[in-house]
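Many introductory courses stop at the sequence. We go one step further.
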Amino acid sequence: MRFIYLILKVITKVALWIYFSETKVKHRARLHFKGPAIVVSNHPNTLMDVLNVAARAREQFHFLANAGLFKSKFGNWFFNTFYCIPIERILDANGKPINNAANFARANQHLAQGGTLYIAPEGTSWMKRHLHPLKTGTARIAFSAESAHNYQLDLKIIPVGLNYSDPTVFRSQLFIYTGEPLYVRDFQAAYAQDPIGMVREVTQILEEHLRPLMLHTADDAEDERLHRLETMLQNEKPLDLEGQFERSKALLEQLQQLQQKEPKRYAHLQEAINDYYEKLDKCKLKDIAITKYNIALFWLSLPIHIISAPFFLYGYINHILPAWIPPLVMRYMMRRANLYIGYSSTVKFALGVFLFPLFYWLQSELVAFLCSERLSWWYLLSLPIAGLFTLYYQPIVGRWLARFRGMIHPQTRTLRTQRMHIMQHLPII
């Protein structure tokens, strides 16, 4: 089974590299540990969170998963076979008593054998940049495993912050921030005196370690406001993913201070941002179209776009079906089965892993049938190359077209003045 795990891990890493336009891991070495460990993270993107953490770690993971996934015969076989341990939750129990004793025992046994667990201690996936109160299960499992072995396991809990630019969008960005490990043995004496109180205290300590690794907004309105300002700042002064994260953290902190100390100024800034984006939507423009840029370079790039257009169209046309079927399926499942939108990336990712190889094979077979076997091999070789070129080039074309639209729109000058007013009144730039 370990060989199967390694094969699946390689496939997952390649698929994640394609799915996200950019991923950066800060303190990657902290995921290259040995010995028993529990890796925990915030949980904004359902099963994608599991994959993004496990793909970057050296050790083989077992996963604590929602017991609802095990209800069907196939689900029970699949998730038990592929390293998952079911955990019952109150919201899934329908009023019945919850009993996780046997499942916790499986987790303890796995840790005692030097294994690694992944736990999302929020309990439920929330597609928000906000850390919800953590469940005590992580601390309970950690203390149970260590105390049963006289604190000789050297068990550690490693917090990881997952920061998605947009959890539902293909080719979005991801910044993974790995925190310092907490060693369970450090709490041995206190746990012996007050087991229940120490479980709660370690859960609180873990929450305090997780929060700095992610953006923690107060509510949806604040999150949307921050996202809009992040877009404006990145279009104005681009930074790498770590730089963006640090800038957003500082901006969020100063906005919250501004709201407390100068509520009128904060309200004025909020109104200006909302008005600016409402006008952008009305004009069907994007913020990048309003930013200043080098006009000479803009026009000098036009011949490159003209030359690249046939290659872009070749890649785009040959990937229409595998690229468009996953989002169509997701929309259907949301409409008919009321599927939570947070599963969007999970569904698109899983279908993409299956559909792209399938359509590559079907399309090459069609070329072989219509033309020749030799040509079909050359065609098959061209598909991933053309697909990667299209993925890279599509946002470049999109930015160029957005700026061209802004260049000819009559409201651009007014919007640019309004944008400058907002930038000048930000707490930081």
